[in-house]
């Protein structure tokens, strides 16, 4: 069975992302006895998408086509851009050029599979992890059997879409690293992606935490499923040798927890002496100097603490499991170890006020990270605690999630926005050594927050879309 896997993601912020998830699918299919080829559209301009798909199908002649949907949009409230238009072009080109079944999948697809299938007019999709699903579909087609038993399969049946339970890899320790995909060299060119090109790698799947806005538990499962440390290091070695990659991004939602697994992975890295560096998302819980120093010895260059807030009131509101004291301790440990520190903030959540922002910035003043990123507005995804909370309120809105609903607390009106901007500007002026990156134009924050149709309220009459 010849399978063509199409990676549609072209999102470039904060940098282009190697389609490692699609590469895992390719490996799983080839190891199961099928042929599999990847068409990576990351660097193709808009006017080349249809032609590239048509050319690839004509050359390869696939029996099955998988289309990966990695991002629905760029998750940026005040500089919004959707990505499903690209997928629609790709899907149309596939249908025009081939009679092979076309299956949608990917992390973004798993968030809203029925909605995406309906808006794109797709007939087949898989939710959850693609390895067992695509192998099962390819096996069934090769043997002339119906594909209905494939895990995670969604099928259009007349006007409705049948829904299955998400597919899961039964033993994440058995996941085989990609062996056949050679990434485009432009992924690692500083002229294209900025000063720190990386290759993404997961040490586990799933997440046991319930941050109010995060869709990872609904995509990957609500518990940590751990990969073998030896397999992880083997994958890093392979990618290093194959593509000359010397810098990795550990893309787990949280790398340092479970702590014992993070320690085991780092000890394996130290023993392998790969000569590479890495960065990771991390949680400030369970930090001490020993852990931070082990990270450094293993090649850790940067830790990105996805804090979202820096005052206990907002941390509780966002359902974080750590406190300001944990933030300050973890930051101090990382600094003593000589690791670069990124603190990321997500403003505008339930209960956010000018005062809570000021207190968050006071925490940033004490921590003094090397880089501070500030985002405004929270993308609302289905099945998250925030989405459930909005839906349970009186006067629940009929939300079209594909229209990119962003939460901004109603209390943040024009006056509050001006106060928040002054606080941020003062912070920037008084902390010249901290690189502050904002996902919005400060000059337009007040006007856009006040008038954007993407804003919803959680106050009385909750969920009303803004005027």
Automatic annotation (TrEMBL):
InterPro entries: BchE-like (IPR051198), Cobalamin-bd (IPR006158), Elp3/MiaA/NifB-like_rSAM (IPR006638), Methylthiotransferase_CS (IPR020612), Methyltransferase_Class_B (IPR034466), rSAM (IPR007197), rSAM_horseshoe (IPR023404), rSAM_sf (IPR058240). Keywords: 4Fe-4S, Iron, Iron-sulfur, Metal-binding, S-adenosyl-L-methionine. Residues 1-148 form the B12-binding domain. SUPFAM superfamilies: Radical SAM enzymes. Pfam families: B12-binding, Radical_SAM. PANTHER family: ANAEROBIC MAGNESIUM-PROTOPORPHYRIN IX MONOMETHYL ESTER CYCLASE-RELATED, SLR0320 PROTEIN. It comes from Nonomuraea bangladeshensis. The keyword 4Fe-4S applies. CDD domains: Radical_SAM. Residues 193-425 form the Radical SAM core domain. It comes from the Bacteria. Its cofactor is [4Fe-4S] cluster. The keyword Nucleotide-binding does not apply. This is Radical SAM protein.
